[in-house]
Amino acid sequence: MAVSAVWEHFPHGADVGVRGIGPTKEDAFQQVALALTAVVTDPTSIRCVVAVPIVCRAPSDDLLLADWLNAIVYEMATRHVLFGAYSVMFHDGELRATAWGEAVEPARHQPAVEIKGATYTALRVERVEDDHWLAQCVVDV
Amino acid sequence: MDLTRLDRRSDTEWWIAPHGRMRVPGIIYGSEALVRDMDVKVYEQVENVATLRGIQRASYAMPDAHWGYGFPIGGVAAFDPDEGGVVSAGGVGFDISCGVRLLHTGLLAPDVEAIKPRLAEALARGVPAGLGSVGRVHLDAAELDAMLSGGARWAVDRGYGTAADLERIEEHGCMAGARPDDVSTFAKNRQRDEMGTLGSGNHYLEVQRVTDVFDAAAAAAFHLREDDVVVCIHCGSRGLGHQIGTEFLRRMAIEAPQYGIDLADRELACAPIASPLGEAYLGAMRAGINCALANRQIITHLVRRVFADLAPRAQLDLLYDVSHNTCKVEQHRTNGRARSLFVHRKGATRALGPGHPDLPAAFAAIGQPVIIGGTMGTASYVLVGTAAGEAKSFGSSCHGAGRRMSRHAAAKLWHGREVIRELADRGVLVRSPSPRGVAEEAPGAYKDVTAVVDAADAAGLSTKVARLEPLVCVKG
Q1: How far is Cα of residue B140 from the mean position of the Cα atoms in its chain?
Q2: Residue A1 — very low, low, confident or very high, per pLDDT cuts 50/70/90?
Q3: What global pTM score does this model have?
Q4: What is the CATH number of domain B100-316+353-404+446-475?
Q5: A6-140: which CATH topology?
Q6: What ipTM was assigned to the predicted interfaces of this complex?
Q7: Which of A136, A138, B170, B215 could tie A19 with a disulfide, CB 3.0–4.6 Å?
Q8: Subunit contact A112:B440, Cβ cutoff 8 A
């Protein structure tokens, strides 16, 4: 049976682990981005009215994951937005994505915490049991 | 942590004998209970830091050590550039120069009790906190670079505070050697709207009461008496520091092989001090330190305005400002000679003993105030640096309680509104835009700060001066 695309958090002493799982690498990267959003607020509370293009390139899949999450952190911080949906494509070793969201409304979104950056702790991108992909790391908050 | 893997040298000093690639021993300070409760990752990270080139004496962990990134939080390590020593972005961390400053108010607890609710509201309104908050100070490119070069001195020059403040800040408020040109446009963009903001997570602004004085002489030198009201500000270099950390961690991890560095853990990412990458990081990191010092200085100005409105006779003089995520060049004696070492403190506070030449004149005879943050519901402490601390830990001590459970676990155990209500019942007014954030930061999610401070005292890293309890806490 095909694995569903899902995200989850995993515990870390002081910070938060974010994990995405999906049938494809693209799905796993989209899901781990939702897990990142969920560190801050409920992703379903975010209206997707603004689209932000993101492009990343890195020498390995795991560094690409860290770059992807750090690019989202940067866009959230500088545009004062939260993202509730993501689409990801890989092309010639490059990640091309769109993040959709809206301006932060503290009263409505009640953001729990700012994210400082994606770390290399528990950083993994891999195909598991030939039927799904996993992408994860710990984020510093 | 399995204590049988450690060589116990005293009640509070535990050694890891050099083995494998370790160049020096590991030394963990803490009571038996604290060390036993430490994650095994602390052991591994102390071990890994000890493998880095040019490390001197030992790889240290303070009594509040916990699992960090490359270095343990609570880690201290010093490197000699003449022995190929390194500088590590992981050894400073993402929140460059995160730190704590303590302000006197000249008020006593009964004075504040009458205005406490209004004070809590005014501080929450007056100091931007939490995700989505925007500072009121916006800098163009030239001013941003001036701030990165000048730190708190820049802020004072712009009217945020007084020259007297600068004497009570490490480096006299301005970290030398900052190179704004080595700070990326991305990092500068991230700081555009964040000057004078508190941030979120474990950062806070507290009004506190001195509940106990343990060392009368030091307390007198620090002008702390029982029932005095003080203000504590805990925050760092905000988005700019986070971005510098992110970018240099990546570069150092990728370029390590070019420098012949084989990392035991990728997050130990480092470069030789005497290399273009090492020098670029030091220039950017020092700019990050200045950003943090300027940020805390602006917040101080905002706090003073609030007190001026509500308690006009309050006098908010700065006791001291200490950073606990830094790498600084310091003079230390190792192997029989004085050297300039690059001392990394990741979640550790510099704790200079009496007579140290870098101390302000007011503290020259007594030692440096060491400010230890607590949690919303427990206590904070002021300690004083010791002469013995130099030999024990390059003059370093603990920095806070340290978490004992994850945010995830805390959010399952507590509800933010309940935490706020329970603390209000105990006389602590918490103001935060985020109930979930408060739940994740619930006092029960942290270790016992008193046990940490007692261990630092017993180990001789720094000694207790006063205990403080929160009256008002503003969190992001």
Answers
A1: 28
A2: low
A3: 0.96
A4: 3.90.1860.10
A5: Archease, Possible Chaperone; Chain: A; domain 1 (3.55.10)
A6: 0.93
A7: A136
A8: yes
